[in-house]
Amino acid sequence: MARPRTPIGTFGDISYISASGGQVRARTRFRDTDGKVRRVSATGTTRRDAERNLKKVLADRTSQGAAGELTANSSFTTLVDVWLEDLDLQDKLAESTRALYERNMRQLVLPVFEGYSLREITVGKVDQFIKRLATAKSYSTAKQARTVLSLAFGLAVRYDALEKNPVRDTARLHKPPSETMALTLDQVEAIRAAVRNWRRAPGTPGPPPDGQLEHIIEIMLGTSARIGEVLAIRRCDVDVTVSPATVRICGTIVSPAGKPTYRQHHPKTQKSTRVVSVPSFVAEVIRQRLVLIGHEDPEHLLFFTRNGTPLTTNNIRRRLRAVLSEAGIEGVTPHAFRRTVATVLDRASGPDLAAELLGHTSSKITKEHYIQPDEAVDPVTAEILESLAPKRPDGA
């Protein structure tokens, strides 16, 4: 019968021998974190001193791991470093998402937990942290912090540093009630007029706007595409020779911190690549853009800076805010056009078609975040309920 192995991190009897310089050497056999048994020793001026130094060496080996692996005694800062390295090794995240994860971890989470070892971070500590963050900041901020914490502790579990992820047992975050609001047709027309008239009045100093913002808005309204997806449309992605004209949504514009803005070869998600048939007003805008770049390479963007480089989403958002603020229109973001498209499609054909156009894998997301609730009940109910009308008295 095989003899059972001693658990990792345990050691046998301690023996003592004389060492040079009048020192005492304490030694023992220790089962290391890689499962192998090694002889470990330490010296001291006395037996007790040598034994104390030996146990300190053994504790350090247990906490650090034989090969620098994570353990329950590793610091939270060490976990964060290992987790970020693991994200880079997997290389599955968009660069913007990777940057967001690191920013949330370093700004929201690390300042709170950097002084703890992993074993000291309990469900209670994490639960209180998330609740305080939701109260002090917002539901969204707390949710983002919870996400990166859960991912990091998930790695700790996979590395056998912890038996379970402490984030999993925290109380569920409750999203505050909110209502998705779409733009009305009158609001859309007011926005169009504000953009069309911006800085074009007689006597306005400086060159007039280049017209790109107007065109970007029309394409967002006719495709439901995100602002970054619209800015990433190339000459080769559009086809105005068919009826209706089509646009292939197959990229997005990203601006990594400290790096040049560039076109990413897929939209927000890999599955949201799609070919969209567009209404006539969008086809006309595309034709106007094609006239400007007809001599350019097929990979050339429809929208670009004076230097031919990609426009940034932040610059378009800032310009839209400035234009609408001057016109007295507040609270409209590029995403409002996406919600408006989803709501119009839902009213006409239901949420499944809206989800398909928006590039969602399920209409659940579309209904929850993009479609304005319809308070009107089908008027057919009035006809059906006529059957409950009181009967007229005989002879009346």
Describe the structure.
The chain is mainly alpha-helical and 396 residues long. It folds into three domains: 15-64; 76-158, DNA polymerase, domain 1 (Orthogonal Bundle); 185-200 and 208-358, hpI Integrase, Chain A, CATH 1.10.443.10. It is 45% helix and 9% strand. It is built from 14 helices and eight strands. The protein has helices spanning 47-64, 76-90, 95-113, 123-136, 139-158, 185-197, 212-223, 227-231, 280-293, 313-326, 334-349, 351-358, 363-369, 380-384; strands at residues 15-18, 24-31, 37-44, 238-239, 246-249, 252-254, 262-264, 274-277. The strands form three sheets. The chain has a three-stranded antiparallel beta sheet. It has a three-stranded antiparallel beta sheet with strand order 4-5-8, with no helix packed on it. It has a two-stranded antiparallel ribbon with strand order 6-7. Helix 12 (351-358) crosses helix 13 (363-369). The longest helix is centred in the middle third of the chain and has 20 residues, at 139-158. The N and C termini lie far apart (102 Å). The mean pLDDT is 88.
What order do the helices and strands come in, and which of them pair?
Layout: E1 15-18, E2 24-31, E3 37-44, H1 47-64, H2 76-90, H3 95-113, H4 123-136, H5 139-158, H6 185-197, H7 212-223, H8 227-231, E4 238-239, E5 246-249, E6 252-254, E7 262-264, E8 274-277, H9 280-293, H10 313-326, H11 334-349, H12 351-358, H13 363-369, H14 380-384
Antiparallel strand pairs: 1-2, 2-3, 4-5, 5-8, 6-7
Helix pairs in contact: 2-3, 3-5, 4-5, 7-9, 7-11, 11-12, 12-13
What's the architecture of the largest domain in CATH terms? Orthogonal Bundle
Number of strands: 8
Question: Per DSSP, what share of the residues sits in E-state strands of 2 or more residues?
Answer: 5-15%
Structural class from helices and strands? mainly alpha
What is the CATH homologous superfamily assignment of the largest domain?
Answer: Intergrase catalytic core
Count of helical segments?
A: 14
Sheet with most strands: strand arrangement: 1-2-3
Question: What does the average pLDDT come to?
Answer: 88
Helix share, percent: 40-55%
The main sheet comes to: 3 strands, antiparallel
SSE sequence, one letter per element: EEEHHHHHHHHEEEEEHHHHHH
Distance between the termini: 102 Å
CATH topology of the largest domain: hpI Integrase, Chain A
CATH first level of the largest domain: Mainly Alpha
Number of domain modules = 3
Organism: Nocardioides flavus (ex Wang et al. 2016)
Family: Belongs to the 'phage' integrase family.
Keywords: DNA integration, DNA recombination, DNA-binding
Domain Tyr recombinase: 178-383
